Input
Amino acid sequence: MAASMTFSPLHCLTFWLLLALLARSVAISLSSSTSRGGRHEHNPQHSSAYIVYADHVAKPSNFTTLEHWYTSMVGSLSPAANSTHFLYVYDTVMHGFAAELTVDEARRVSNTPGVTGVFKDKAVHLHTTRSPAFLGLDKDSGIWPDTDFGDGIIIGFVDSGIWPESASFNDIRLTPSGRAGRAGAPTASGSTLACATTS
Output
């Protein structure tokens, strides 16, 4: 006579709980091994984009160009480091470079003579492209009209990428002197893109 097996609801519940715990432990094990082998945010050897500001006047005379100096800085960090870590060299408004560095490499670069700052690059999102309204400036009274609406003043620059068709790039509301700091660039649609100049 064969013994019949009956399962109570408690046995079924226990079975499913054990199966769920087993699946969870496998998932945790897989994710921790992936983070050890891959690029994980808490891994000190993980590289991220850093922006390195440099005093261009401090460039040692044995380097022919600033880029040569920057390449030497990154190349001295480790045998594996080379110019492929470079993302961009800044040489117009500021001097320095962007490179993929680990936290330790960024710390060591920051101690290099002539380096004035090292900052981890981070994405930020624009809140506005029309600052007067965003800052609550009133066009009829207060500091905004008292200063001729900031005519001729450029406070800073933001590299937000360019989408030429954006209404933020039209200069319809600018005074003629406000347009003086802009240069025209043709777009694919045939319109002109107004670009602020740094000279």
In short: Confidence is low (pLDDT under 50) at residues 26-42, 193-199. The CA atoms of residues 119 and 159 lie 16 Å apart. Helices lie at 9-37, 66-75, 103-110, 131-134, 143-146, 176-179. The first strand starts at residue 48 and ends at 54.
